[in-house]
Write a structure and sequence with these properties.
The protein is an alpha+beta fold and about 230 residues long. It has 3 helices and 9 strands, in the order E-E-E-E-E-E-E-E-E-H-H-H. The longest helix has 25 residues. It is elongated, with a radius of gyration of 31 Å. The termini are far apart. Keywords: Membrane, Transmembrane, Transmembrane helix.
Length: about 230
């Protein structure tokens, strides 16, 4: 089956759709069945993801059937008032048509610009990633400053790897929240891998740790006289 999805009267293909929690959106699905059997649709699911995690999902029951070679159109309002506390920024979004067994029979992809709050689940998720990444960098750099890293270059590189991965994840979420780039797999994977590679290179290039010098022995010039006494039995 082929499905064409429109939001507020405009086709979602190749464009960014705005979801404003302050007002409902009108979703329209036009389905064409090119198969030889009648297709049954039970509900329509609209869900947004980032970093393979789902941050919002709406299931709307819209039961209908599409005869072989036929076409059906259904429209319904989507209440997104609670989206303010779920997400913010650009999120890859899928519109899926599910049958009675909740199997996907057709789907369309788009990018949604969520006009939510920074303190939404997605916003707090990004802030938590930022705090964790800062802690990882602080731990790695502090260990380097105190000469407590491994003398092996490869182990030092691995010591910096988690901080690099965290930096990549923070970059992906930040670009999404700032509405610059949607966190699609084609963007997420290269950004995270590049940040991880840079962190590995930095760790590999760090200087060899040196042992802390021992404190000097202070001679105050005093001499301690020792006397021995022989005991005759």
């Amino acid at each position: 089956m082929q499905v064409v999805v429109a939001v507020d009267g405009q086709d979602v293909a190749g464009r960014t759709v705005e979801f404003d929690p302050g007002r409902p959106v009108e979703v329209e699905v036009r389905v064409r069945n090119s198969g030889r059997e009648t297709a049954k649709v039970r509900l329509v699911r609209v869900s947004g993801e980032s970093l393979a995690l789902t941050f919002f999902a709406y299931d709307t029951t819209v039961p209908f059937e599409v005869a072989p070679g036929g076409e059906e159109t259904r429209a319904f309002p989507l209440d997104v008032r609670d989206l303010d506390g779920q997400a913010i920024g650009l999120l890859p979004t899928s519109v899926e048509l599910l049958d009675d067994d909740r199997e996907v029979v057709a789907a369309a992809d788009t990018v949604v610009d969520v006009r939510g709050s920074l303190w939404s689940v997605y916003g707090v998720f990004g802030l938590a990633l930022l705090a964790l990444t800062a802690a990882l960098w602080a731990g790695a750099l502090l260990a380097l400053a105190r000469h407590r890293v491994s003398p092996n270059r490869f182990r030092r590189a691995l010591r910096f790897l988690p901080a690099g991965v965290g930096t990549g994840l923070v970059a992906v979420v930040t670009l999404s929240v700032l509405r610059l780039v949607a966190p699609e797999p084609a963007v997420e994977i290269p950004v995270v891998l590049a940040a991880a590679a840079i962190a590995l290179l930095l760790g590999f290039s760090t200087p060899h740790p040196t042992a802390e010098p021992e404190p000097p022995v202070v001679d105050d010039g005093e001499t301690v006289a020792l006397s021995t006494q022989r005991v005759v039995s």
